[in-house]
Amino acid sequence: MDLRVLHYFLTVAKEQSFTNAAAVLHITQPTLSRQLAALEDELGTVLFNRGGRSITLTDEGILLKRRALEIIDLEDRILDEFKGNNEVVEGKVTIGCGEFAAVETMAEICGRYRKKYPMVQIVVHTGTADIVYEMMNKGLVDVGLFMEPVNKEGLEYISIRDSDHWVVGMRPDDPLAKKEYITKADLLNVPLILPERAGVQNELQNWFGKDADKLHVAFTSNLGTNAGVLAIHGLGYPVSIEGAARYWRSNLLVQKKLYPEINSSTVLAWRRNIPYSQPVNKFIDEINAFKKECFC
């Protein structure tokens, strides 16, 4: 499969027109049509719905688009990595993370790194642990910030102990907002918004103990920001780590700690025994230097 043809395919998918895509690519429309017809023959499937006023992707085309974007991203990363093999360090470092308070630690490391290597672009991808872990295994993420529990097999990492506190979010006019902290009893008869990850839900079920089966789970959410929006609309109480929601305006959303308290650790991790680019190796060096300075 030719990378050039994948670029052609993605351009048609973006423009939704063979004519417009051919103009963008500076090739003739018959040439473009032949190339993509050959791609369909190679894959043994139809990639485009050609009826109507615009070109749309079939289900198979949507799958190829997802994979083609990953391949093109890897192509760009290879070029960046080899361009970085000179005196001036330049290229990209990709970090995957959720919405954690520990992002502040990562930001401090990034700040130190950027002072030394200002030509390096740092790409931050926000997603759930499962997605970040998958992207790391595919080579699309260099460094991941994960909340415990997480499978650390095959990873090098530093641990940021007790970096996030568990809280309950609510509107400031909610009766629970007047309380100093939130107990299990406060949450048994109200609609809850819980994190989507099964491992994290298990942690909460352990905290609730024998009362776990009495909970009214109205929603689950993979990221805290959307859970906060649901809470603002009075749809439930997000139980989650403090994370990014502590930066919300207090007239929109307030957070109260759980009692007894739950604290969670996070790990800043990268794959073991992987040949990385110069910018990524230097970023890992910066992580380890930070660990020695701040956690030892």
Structure commentary:
This protein is of the alpha/beta class. 42% of the residues lie in helices and 23% in strands. The protein is built from ten helices and eleven strands. Strand 7 (191-195), helix 8 (198-208) and strand 8 (216-221) form a beta-alpha-beta unit. The longest helix has 25 residues, at 59-83. The N and C termini lie far apart (50 Å).
What keyword list fits this structure?
single chain; about 300 residues; alpha/beta; nine-stranded mixed sheet; two-stranded antiparallel sheet; 11 strands
| Molecular shape | globular
Number of strands: 11
Let me know the average pLDDT.
89
Q: N- to C-terminal separation?
A: 50 Å
Structural class: alpha/beta
* Rg measurement, Å: 24 Å
The share of residues in helices is 40-55%
The proportion of strand residues reads 15-25%
The biggest sheet, with number of strands, parallel, antiparallel or mixed sense and barrel status, is: 9 strands, mixed
